[in-house]
């Protein structure tokens, strides 16, 4: 895997959430969801594992497995991804 | 003794989506067999299947469930939705831990599993779906149905190859007898992909005839193997008094008798166990052979197996002693879904007083001495026997009876 400096945006994340795990009925991912817990958006830990896998493949970065429990909201996950604290191994 | 009745049906079959479409097509003798389209079967010796056509998954399955299911589980979820809707049951009104889910499976979601194994070996572990952790699994249909409808009663999965559809209903009845008001049961299977295909070829029982109208001819002198299909039936099984108390609109019939046997080891010299399963199921139902109005046969389509089943039937009922039918000639053998669909079909036959036909066969080979029903036959039907065999020695028999409340 190669490192990348590309920043993952909320739009990128919601697109990948839809592709990897689908969209819960009654939830609008295009709304103001940056601080909405993933659980409230209808995503469980497996869904997050799935989308984190997609992020790693698309962006060539490595995200620790703990992110599934540590990042409770899209904002927290984006901060973790974009912080540069997760370089490729 | 409690009584188990069927109050809801959900059918996904190669010749009809939904109970009434399927039943109409079945009575009309419309076959769902055709060349395989779900994968390129041209390099394989068997190239005919019963595929569920015109099923648009997105019309039935929520977006969240799409990435974690394959064709089999989607069909199963759809059939379960329909069975619950048909039963008119409000699951929230029953005790939280009162409704179980018991389905049959064969190889699990092999289409899902094949795709993810291909991802693993061709691209690497980073490309394997997180949902592979459960989505391939034998119990996936039971689990997804349970989660979707919040059914927290006793649940499980039975693997007895093609006999599983009956064994799941037998197990559902056990839960009813223990005091649970309802169980979602039956089986839906779909393995029309290379990984699902190859083990069936290895069994040596699959037809290699390319003409869909000639490929699967159980009890015919030209029988040359079976054609696999996909789909099956989910049935809502309820305790009769509980169903009456909640005002269930339809009672399709009673699960009156059930039995299962295993074949003796090869070379033992003892006979196969199908007849014993049928006898035990009749005894369990408290009926005699003379009470059986129609038999839905296992109909392997393999000469030796057809002969063994014909001998079991003539032994029990006498030569030409009972109408025998195999509507699965229109769907192919549906693995874990087949016997469940046969039970659902038997219940519809009881409801409407008509035996659905065995198609393409013309007539049973004379030496089988069977009254094979090859055109729809109206009859006063009260009790039906459904037989099923699973590869390598599973036998199961179920007696269903019209319900007179």
UniProtKB/TrEMBL annotation, chain A:
Phosphoprotein among keywords: yes
Domain of life according to the entry: Bacteria
Keywords annotated in UniProt: Phosphopantetheine, Phosphoprotein
Keyword Phosphoprotein listed: yes
SMART domains reported for this sequence: PKS_PP
Carrier domain residues: 8-85
Name of the protein described by the UniProt record: Actinorhodin polyketide synthase acyl carrier protein
Gene source species: Streptomyces griseorubens
